[in-house]
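TL;DR need structure tokens for one chain.
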Amino acid sequence: MVKNKRKAKKRKKKEKKRNEKKRVKKSMDEKKRKRREEKRIKEERSRQEKRKEKKRKEKKRKRGGEQRREEKKEKKRVKKSMEEKNRTRREEKRREEKRREKNDTMASARISVCLVDISSWMMAHQLKLNPSKTELLVIPGLPLNAIRPLQMIQNAAAQLVFNLHKFSHTTPLLRSLHWFLVAARIRFKTLTLAYKAKNGPAPSYVKALITPRTAPRSLRSTSTARLVPPSLREKGYEE
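>> reply
TL;DR here they are.
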């Protein structure tokens, strides 16, 4: 009996140890399995993160490439618009030069025809025109489109005197030459001729054109010595 009890105790201890080993082994296996699962999950997550990062980089690269392409297109468009503007400016400048040249030639032709008519009239009346002492007087009241070609001729003459190109500024040139502008010259010559006809030595046919203005009553303008403008429709001036 005692032997059987001892054997039973030994068996129980062995069984207990065996069960304990199995439990420890099972717990170890469970821990290993958990570690492997956790490792697998971490690796999967890292792979997903890498794939996402790769996709983000690919999208960013594509977006950057599209942005660069858009910038290139915008630069090309701006360059094309600037070239178009420069081309239109050059065309306008060329047309303006042609128009100026045409106006110069037309004004020169008109002045030449006028001088030829005056010379023929004077020759028909047995008079002689001295070109070196003859000055062209333009009657005031002309429109701007008639004075402008004459001013362009004067500007070209000033540039020719100083041997400058045709786009140089002519105001200092005219000032250094003591030349009036065409409009100012017309006004100056008209006023000078009127003053000489009224107060100084002037031909009788010019004095006959001058009539002092008389007001019907006393006005402030009576002290300004104004003149009555001659009418070209009168009998003596119709021809």
